[in-house]
Amino acid sequence: MHGVSRVTLAALRERLAAREVGHGSAEQVERESGELLAVAALLGRETHLRSSLADASADPAGRAQLAHAVLDGRVSEQSAEIVAEAARGRWSRPSELADALESLGAEAAFALAESAGTLDRVEDELFRVARLVSSSPDLRRTLSDPGLPLEGRRGLLGQLLGDRVDATTLRLLDHVVGSLRGRQLEDALDDLVALAAVRRTETLAEATVAVALTPEQEQRLAAVLGRVYATQVKLQVVVDPTVLGGVVVRVGDEVIDGSVLHRVEQARQTTAGL
């Protein structure tokens, strides 16, 4: 997301935060989460509407009125006003309006999960499904194929996951499968995992290892990464026997192998002793 869009999204987050759990009822937050995700999906399908709502040359008040004209009576007053406020804002490109509404809807879902004590589980389940999709081209093609009925693709998800995942996880997966908006499925899922990590003010690190780590090794690696990046690190581990050097760690856009990580940690310790 580009600069001006980030500023608008930050302002929207502040407004929505007042209606999270502790300020509004869980039922209200859950409804708004679903409605914002549904509007993001609508804007993914209706490109003309999306462009009109994000048209920088149009009057902001007029864009907000358009949002209300489309949504009033179809979603709650609160959700309609959030979308109208988004339409009043400035966006670097129209697609980022849909991206922002999706982020807000997902963040509301994560707020509910946090309140229920299930955020860790939801984040881990989304990560595992993302890795499953990444490693299974046939599954990825089937779930991403717009030529297949959406209900059929969602039904496949239900068959694969059933009641083995949290209800919040399944709702977010259902949304993503129906609203890729030109993205790769695993990339859209990774975006959700990153949002969940941000909810806990953690940095997400993905470690791909040749051999499964013991719990002690995972804790040690997370601690080293925490010192290197000077923040709390949430570690997700993927086992891939083809990995050279034993471990490859990805933090955001940065990729480092185990030997580099070891040298960085040694340098940090040496500097600390000066």
Major beta-sheet overview: 4 strands, mixed
Tally of individual helices: 13
Overall mean pLDDT: 88
Ranges where pLDDT stays below 50 over 5 or more residues in a row are none
Strand order, sheet with most strands:
2-1-3-4
Percent of residues in helices? 55-70%
The N- and C-terminal alpha carbons lie at a distance of 40 Å
Report the principal-axis shape: globular
Beta-strand percentage range: 5-15%
Helix/sheet category: alpha+beta
C-alpha Rg (nearest Å): 20 Å
Instruction: Provide the number of structural domains.
Output: 3
Q: Topology as H/E string?
A: HHHHHHHHHHHEHEEEH
Q: Please report the total strand number as a whole number.
A: 4
Written description of the protein model:
The protein is of the alpha+beta class and 274 residues long. It has three domains: 1-116; 117-200; 203-272, 3-Layer(aba) Sandwich (Glutaredoxin), CATH 3.40.30. The protein is 66% helix and 8% strand. The protein has 13 helices and four strands. The chain has a four-stranded mixed beta sheet with strand order 2-1-3-4, with helices on both faces. α1 runs parallel beside α6 (95-116), α2 packs antiparallel against α6 and α10 (167-178) crosses α11. This is ATP synthase subunit delta. It is found in: Cell membrane; Membrane. It is a peripheral membrane protein. InterPro entries: ATP_synth_OSCP/delta_N_sf (IPR026015), ATPase_OSCP/d_CS (IPR020781), ATPase_OSCP/dsu (IPR000711).
